[in-house]
Specification:
The protein is built from 9 helices and 9 strands. With about 400 residues, the protein is α+β, with helices and mostly antiparallel strands. Strands 6, 7, 8 and 9 form a 4-stranded antiparallel sheet that branches. It has a 3-stranded antiparallel sheet with strand order 3-2-5. The relative contact order is 0.05. Mean pLDDT is about 75; it is low at about 20-55, about 70-80 and about 100-110.
């Protein structure tokens, strides 16, 4: 039985050496194992198990400190003494992270490079941190504003002041931040963008495809920055609303060209400025220009035919008016000539009457081929008209 109990004890010691002891155990050597890794000493063949008095070097049973070298459970003041050359452990410091150790941080294959040192052995880290701080303060407190720009200064997100062109100083970020905007250059918005179709209805219930340009700039940078969530989008929406209202007041002919288009552009600008001022947007509308005003694509063929018919009607009206003016001028000329004849008639009525009779008869009988002989014994005349007609007929036949 004693041999069986000894064998069981040896098996337990072997199992503890495989699982927790040895060089690969984080808890150090198993209880009773020598520093060299040898097997525990066997119990004597007789009697009870050895006690602490028989083996003074054996550590007392109980929980051991895994952070001590070799997994020992004693302290420098009691328990088992540490082997020679086994120094006590301590908490790692910040500088240990940058020390060069093979396979560790700072060494070959490590994650951190070794920091350069000053000639006296000190670290350059304080000087580097100071230089970074100086550069950060310099760049976050000095601001250069161009002549066409203005800057908005906010303190912890709240409006503080507006800075003018030139060099300005502020508190470092994030205490104060600056946003610079161009307030002089003219911004241009084309509505609609690209080749999209924008249909609007006129006062005579016709549809027209409108494309126009809005020119504007920033009038008050504070209002522009804080009053509206999207000032650029608001300008476009107000422009479309004002254009629809202005197009609805004019017929299709005025919307498509002539003096009506200039009136529409002026009305759109005034309406946009009134609405944006009511919104306190800080935007100044410089002008509105209609680039295109055409019929919709679906009816453009029919519209072109109608336009051609209208142009033909206008041409015929112009021709009729020209003919009427010519007839009127001729009638006025005849009336003026008659007035002159009447003045002469009043001076010598008999002579004027006879002259008028002769001129009238000459005009009436000039194309007559018949000759009336009033008295007998008059010699017949030469048929000169008949000769002229024959000569004219021969000339036309040749």
């Amino acid at each position: 039985m004693k041999r069986i109990s000894d064998a069981i004890a040896r098996g337990r010691l072997a199992m503890s050496g495989e699982k927790g002891g040895g060089g690969g155990s984080p808890w150090g050597r198993p209880q009773g194992q020598e520093p060299g890794g040898s097997e525990p000493a066997s119990e004597p063949e007789g009697g009870d198990a050895p006690t602490g008095a028989d083996k003074p070097d054996m550590p007392p049973k109980g929980p051991r400190n895994p952070w001590l070298p070799g997994g020992g459970s004693g302290s420098p003041g009691g328990g088992k003494q540490r082997p020679a050359g086994d120094a006590p452990r301590r908490a790692p410091g910040f500088e240990d992270l940058f020390r060069s150790r093979p396979g560790g941080p700072g060494g070959p294959g490590g994650a951190f490079p070794r920091m350069p040192q000053r000639p006296d052995g000190g670290s350059w880290l304080p000087y580097i941190a100071g230089a970074v701080a100086v550069v950060w303060v310099l760049f976050s407190t000095t601001h250069m504003v161009n002549p066409k720009e203005q800057g908005i200064v906010t303190t912890l997100g709240k409006y503080s002041r507006t800075i003018s062109p030139g060099v300005s100083l502020t508190l470092p970020w994030p205490l104060e931040s600056v946003r610079i905007e161009d307030v002089t250059s003219i911004k241009r918005d084309t509505i609609p963008e690209g080749e999209a179709e924008k249909l609007m209805i006129t006062s005579d219930q016709n549809l027209v495809d409108i494309s126009y340009l809005v020119r504007w700039n920033i009038k008050d940078l504070k209002l522009y920055s804080f009053q509206l969530a999207d000032p650029d989008g608001t300008v476009k929406e107000v422009a479309e609303a004002a254009m629809r209202a202005s197009i609805a007041e004019v017929p299709l002919s005025d919307a498509m060209g002539g003096t009506g288009r200039a009136m529409v552009e002026q009305n759109v600008r005034l309406r946009m400025q009134a609405v944006l001022d009511a919104y306190r947007s800080g935007v100044l509308i410089q002008g509105v220009e209609i680039k295109k005003a055409d019929p919709p694509n679906k009816v453009i063929d029919a519209f072109q035919k109608v336009t051609a018919a209208q142009q033909d009607a206008q041409r015929e009206r112009s021709n009729a008016q020209a003919w009427a003016q010519q007839v009127m001028a001729r009638a006025q000329g005849d009336a003026a000539a008659f007035d002159k004849v009447y003045e002469q008639y009043k001076l010598a009525p008999e002579v004027t009457r006879r002259r008028m009779y002769y001129e009238t008869m000459e005009r009436v009988l000039s194309a007559n081929d018949k000759v009336i002989v009033a008295a007998p014994g008059v010699t017949s005349y030469l048929p000169l008209p008949e000769v002229k007609r024959k000569k004219a007929a021969e000339g036309s036949a040749q």
